[in-house]
Design brief:
Layout lengths: L44 E5 L4 H12 L3 E6 L3 H13 L4 E5 L5 H15 L4 E4 L15 H22 L8 E5 L3 H4 L5 H21 L5 E5 L15 H5 L13 H12 L10 E2 L10
Helix pairs in contact: 1-2, 1-8, 3-4, 4-6
């Protein structure tokens, strides 16, 4: 851990954390750019898991600005989810919300069915929901935590894709959230890092399986991003120095990651599948 302080010390006692309680607030509004407003996703429908806050909220906002209708799945962070819906409404975006556990295959089927009922089709599936809990030693890693981490982070992607596939047609996009920990590892997040490595392999394998159907499967592997998962995971001191070890010496904001998801969902990524993008503050990883 670097001596550089990047954030005010803070900790939240409950996973996966509340965005409303964070200081400073993460920045999720789309970053101004010459390309903004070109409506790259006009008439598209996107389902985003973990879309209530953090990276998911920023992706939802960016998609709405680009013309997509958004169906957001989240666990139980109702305040954050309602705020995301309000932010999308401000930009004229259409949004629906559904609370539930993506670790349940039955719920994933319900989520996809609800998105189809709301908007009539599905063009983009963003598997973004995630959970992490530090554990100093594999000897202390319980069966319950191991199952929860894998069920939330990677089982959910199998469940969501299985439920969505009957509705996805040529040109559809599946975008999975991996992590820099898939490449660097993390001694405190052994189970989480293992799921993120699995997500990379899942992305590459599923891309090969679905290429014949012209369905594109890619992933984004963020580095240290200021989301509710951070104060809900780490101690006050760790939060205070979060992101200081990357070359840019700061954590990234959710809206610095969202453009990668826009690109992968757009026609600009028409010749990409099985790939991973790395918004991580300048860390070089073997991709």
């Amino acid at each position: 851990m670097s001596d550089t302080m990047t954030l005010p010390p803070q900790h939240q006692a409950r996973q996966p954390g509340s965005e409303a309680a964070m200081q400073p607030q993460p920045i999720s509004e789309p970053r101004p750019s010459p390309a903004q407003g070109r409506r790259k996703l006009e008439n598209k429908v996107a389902l985003i898991t973990g879309g209530d806050s953090g990276i998911g909220r920023a992706v939802a906002q960016a998609y709405a600005v680009e013309g997509a209708k958004v169906f957001i799945v989240y666990l139980d962070e109702h305040e954050d989810a309602q705020e995301t819906a309000r932010l999308l409404a401000e930009t004229g975006g259409e949004c629906r919300l559904l609370a539930g556990d993506v670790g349940s295959e039955a719920f994933c089927k319900q989520a996809v069915a609800s998105a189809i009922a709301a908007f009539g089709k599905l063009d983009i599936l963003v598997n973004n929901a995630g959970w992490q809990q530090p554990c100093p030693s594999i000897e202390k890693l319980t069966e319950a935590q191991l199952e929860k981490t894998f069920r939330t982070n990677i089982f959910s992607m199998f469940f969501m894709v299985k439920a969505a596939l009957p509705y996805l047609v040529a040109g559809a996009r599946i975008i999975n959230t991996a992590s820099v920990t898939a490449y660097k590892g993390s001694p405190q997040l052994l189970d989480y890092s293992a799921t993120k490595g699995a997500i990379v392999a899942f992305t590459r394998s599923l891309a090969q399986q679905l290429v014949k159907d012209e369905i594109h499967v890619n992933a984004v592997a963020p580095g240290p991003i200021w989301t509710p998962l951070i104060p809900a995971t780490f101690t006050e001191e760790q939060v205070a120095h979060f992101g200081s070890n990357v070359p840019m010496q700061r954590p990234g904001q959710p809206n610095e990651v969202a453009p990668a998801y826009v690109f992968l969902a757009s026609d600009g990524a028409s010749y990409m599948s099985g790939q991973v993008l790395h918004p991580n503050g300048g860390e070089v990883v073997n991709s």
